[in-house]
Amino acid sequence: MSTFTRPSTDGENRTTNETMNGTMHATKNGPRHGAPNATTTQATRRPRLSGMTWLVWRQHRAAFWTMIAATVLCVAWMVYQRGQMMDFLGAYGFPAKNLDDADKEFKPYIGAFTTVTTGLTAIPVMLGVLLGAPLLAGDLENGTAKLIAAQSVSRNRWLATKLALTGLVVTVTTVTLSAVFAWWWNPIKLHYPDIDWASREFFNTTGPAPVALSLLSVFGGVLIGVILRRTLAAMVVTLGFTVALQAVWGYFKLSFGDIVTATSKPVSPGTPITFPSSVPRTAHWLDTSYVSGSGKLFDLTTCTETPTEEATQLCMKKADIVGSSMDYIPMSQMSGMQWLGASILFALTVGIVAFLFIWGRKRLV
User: Fold this and answer.
1) Contact criterion met (CB below 8 Å) for 319 and 292
2) Is pTM, for the whole model, over 0.85?
3) Measuring CA to CA, which residue among 289, 274, 279 is closest to residue 330?
4) Which of 93, 172, 186, 270 is deepest in the core (most CB within 10 A)?
């Protein structure tokens, strides 16, 4: 039996075939008027970046993803090290037993702290040089800024998106690292005096301090890049800026605390001098001096060059030294000092951002 197909000269057969194909396709995959279903399916997917946010993320995605990946790896390492430390402390009998008796056994765990803090203290410098300096300097040097300025998006919006997205990534990563490191250190914070809480390895890596230092380093690098308009030159100058920032911060950070002075009980001139016993073990020591009956302070080297003990006692008696005093800052002030110092750094960062919008946006072409 043969099958005949009537030829079509006016395109009716093509129209019919297209209609049949469309109907068959609709039968297999749903009605043709089901297009809204596809739209609904797309709408239920996870939200994606779009517009200027997508452009900025895509342009700097390598740096952003590197920061996120490095944060995840560092957090995993700190969690592992804390677990190892807690296992040791549990087997050792802490806190019933003092950690002073476990100096040699506990050294590997202190070494782990040293390794991590070395990297954490370098984060503001690395972010300022590798992220902040090229953020706008690269666009100005390569001509990307002129291309974007020719579009319908304003320079203010482009600058705001750049700074906001960069600041968000920097804040999230540094807050995470700061919180996890503080969680790791917290079990022995008040029980191991060999760790100086006022050192940059611990003061600069916990609380708001690393966030404030990183943001100021990054946005300071952005401003330097806008001024110099050359990526390599901006990175070199930013390196000097971030190192200087760390040095200035280290010099002034202790001034954010209130110095406490402890004085020993007075004794008769010429008798052995005792030192204050009320100073907490975890306090940051600043200075120790001898005190005379009139309240005058003498350095501890006073009367140390005498040939005999009797001569030393005679020298102390002649100087009317009756006691000693010690200046220190207790660890209880650490959080307040960090927030006071960080508020100053945050204010400087806001000033830099405002200056970028007022003056810097004019150079983004």
Assistant:
1) yes
2) no
3) 279
4) 270
